Amino acid sequence: MAHVTGAYPPTRGRRVREVAFRTLSAAALLFVIGPSVWLITDVVVRAVPHWRWNVLTTVPLGTGGGLENAILGTLVIMVGVLVIAGTIGVLSGIHFAELSRPRRGDGVTGGAVLRTATEVLSGFPSIVLGYVGYIALCVGLHWGFSLLPALIILSLMVTPYIAKSTESALRQVPTSYREGAEALGMSTGYALRKVVIKSALPGIVTGLLIALAIAVGETAPLLYTAGITNNLPSASLIHQPIAYLTYYVWTDYNQPITSSQYLSFDAALILIVLVLVLLVVSRVLVNRTQRHAEGRR
User: Fold this and answer.
1) Burial (CB count within 10 angstroms: exposed 0-12, middle 13-18, buried 19+), residue 106
2) Which element (helix H / strand E) includes 31?
């Protein structure tokens, strides 16, 4: 008589291993979340008791004033990085996912070489990119500390992340979508625009927002390229320094003047709020994408 196989009750050893695995997983999660919660709490505790709303509408004056110039400068840098790195990164991701698929029997393709170069670029330390930007752009091209060198270097830094996220989002689009578009007589370019990219858009936008969160928190590349100024951002791309929040976090924290330290705490709080907003928006997009995908099934 054939034996009927079924689920066996868990043995003592299996229960112990399961509990140990859950404990280690919770400890690893705590190890990741703990420092973030500690840093955010420390910044809030230091900044909120001395918070002044006019810090949003005034520029630094001596050892006091506000951070209007740095807030506007950070927003300008974010928009510039979104335009430059977003365009290059998304197009690169489309090329990797759709236009450079290896064919059977081919050797190393151009897409593989470009993908390797992108991964190498993502491994460069940000301070090295900043120094190269200072030598090549600020000094070599005589642009000085200004917005354009800062945008170019930050874009170089985050473009690999955008390209990778775009490629991943496009590869998650079911092949049946492409086959259906081809069966309907759509051209490759039209199907790519109207079907594939549209389906992958939430994942692409998520990658863009995460890249912006990385760029907005950088200090080293901006010290070498953007400089600093107490003035509000201007329309000039070169020969005019621009302010940013991370400069005041880095500079004023160790100042012996209490008002300067308060300004550093305020800058850190505003910066954390900006990053959290970007991350929350990205998580909302991911959740919406997952629900949409589950609904299709």
Assistant:
1) exposed
2) helix 12-47
Contacting residues for 252 by C-beta, under 8 A, at least 6 apart = 260, 261, 263, 264, 267
| 27 in any annotated domain | no
Q: Which pLDDT tens digit goes with each residue over 187-201?
A: 878 888 888 888 888
Q: Which residue has the tokens 């196989």?
A: 5
Collapsing DSSP states into helix, strand and coil, what is residue 64?
strand
pLDDT per residue over 194-241, tens digit each? 888 888 888 888 889 888 988 988 899 999 999 999 999 988 899 999
Q: Supply the range of the domain harboring residue 276.
A: 53-101+108-296
| Confidence bin at 277 (pLDDT 50/70/90) | confident
CATH at residue 279: 1.10.3720.10
Report the domain count for the chain.
Answer: 1
Query: Quick check: 205 and 285 in contact, CB under 8 A?
Result: yes
Q: Coil, helix or strand for 184?
A: coil
Q: What is the largest CA-CA distance in the chain?
A: 92
Q: 70-104 burial string, b = 16+ CB within 10 Å, else e?
A: bbbbbebbbebbbebbbebbbebbbbbbbebeeee
Q: What is the CA radius of gyration of the chain?
A: 24
User: Which pair of structure tokens corresponds to residue 170?
Assistant: 């496009």
Tell me what percent of the residues of the chain surpass a pLDDT of 90.
40
Q: Do 110 and 99 contact (CB within 8 A), yes or no?
A: no
Contact, 255 vs 161, CB < 8 A?
A: no
3-class SS of residue 6: coil
Does any domain span residue 10? no
